[in-house]
Amino acid sequence: METTIKKLNKCRLCKSNNYNVLFIKYGYELAKCNECSLTFLNFDPDDEFFSNYYAEDFFNDPGIKHAYSDYEKEAESLKNSFKFRVDILSKYNSGGNLLDVGCATGAFMEVASSRWEVYGVDVSEYAVEQAKKKNLKAFAGVIKDSPYINQIFDVVTLWDTIEHVSDPLETLQQLSEMTKQGSVVALTTGDVGSTVAKISGKYWHLYNIPQHLSYFDKNTITRIFNESGFEVVEIIYPSIQLSLDYLLFRLVTFYKIKYAFSFYKLLKKTGILKPNLNINLYDIMLVVAKKV
After folding, report:
1. CB neighbours (10 Å) of residue 287?
2. Residue 157's beta-bridge partner residues?
């Protein structure tokens, strides 16, 4: 039976219905707003989509969700990049409490706990279960339903998260209510205005459909922060440390290279995919903003 894709039919940022469809991938329309220039997936996911998509097989992907073959192992590689992010945040705020939105299994929380009292929230029940096994304070669900909704945080992070939420403006506005003047909100997300994105076109590796719902550039990410009561103070393009295993897995699953997945599994068994690599295509931006 063919699945019906429920369309959003409006921009996720400015809510305008004046947009153009750039291309269609897997039946989903990738569109660009003619009013604010946000690129977005014309898809209106329901709660069931989020609970089903970010289940255990997202973090231990058999090759169907363009995610992680083994997130817990990859998290050990990511921790090296997370240490750099902690240093960046510490320039602006080096104490108090921190909320990690989209905390997954808690890898960043573990690293950040050396500087802040850490809390996490994620829509994935599976991921939060893993975080709790590490004695981390995490909630499975959305921000508005979390026990943290009435707390005030010194630092909030959204690593590779803002592109996954249905309403990114509402998310940042909620976080504005949960922060005080001078609090820091930091995120990472793909830059659809980057050279790599433009050259790659519809084959850009971050057109990860249907999980990525919004695609920002420096202008649109600055606008959404401004409209939520924050001022962007830094945008950088740091490298990220990833395992060769993850990179090859993403390559063969995202681009659906014929027969390559069997070859990947063969290489994985040999153990030669364990080394980590520092990767930087300058198409993922780290954005730091302060509450004004």
Report:
1. 24
2. 100, 186
Max alpha carbon distance in the chain (Å)? 54
Cα distance from N-terminal residue to C-terminal residue, the chain: 51
In a domain, 81, yes or no: yes
**Cβ count near 212 (within 10 Å):** 20
Our count of domains for the chain comes to 1
pLDDT tens digits, 44-100 = 999 999 999 999 999 999 888 888 989 998 998 999 999 999 999 999 998 999 999
Q: How many residues does the chain have?
A: 292
Residue 26 lies in a domain: no
To the nearest 10°, report the CA torsion of 5, 6, 11, 14: -150
pLDDT at 28 over 70: yes
Whole-model pTM: value is: 0.95
| CB neighbour class for 233 (10 Å; exposed up to 12, middle 13-18, buried from 19) | middle
- What amino acid occupies position 62? P
What phi, psi does 239 have (nearest 5°)?
-75, 165
Q: Say how far apart CA 264 and CA 143 lie, in whole Å.
A: 37
Question: What is the residue-wise DSSP string for 164-177?
Answer: GSS-HHHHHHHHHH
Residue with tokens 């590779």: 160
- Domain hosting residue 206, numbered range: 46-291
- CATH code, domain carrying 226: 3.40.50.150
The SS3 of residue 264 is helix
Distance CA 224, CA 218 (A): 10
- Type of residue found at 190: G
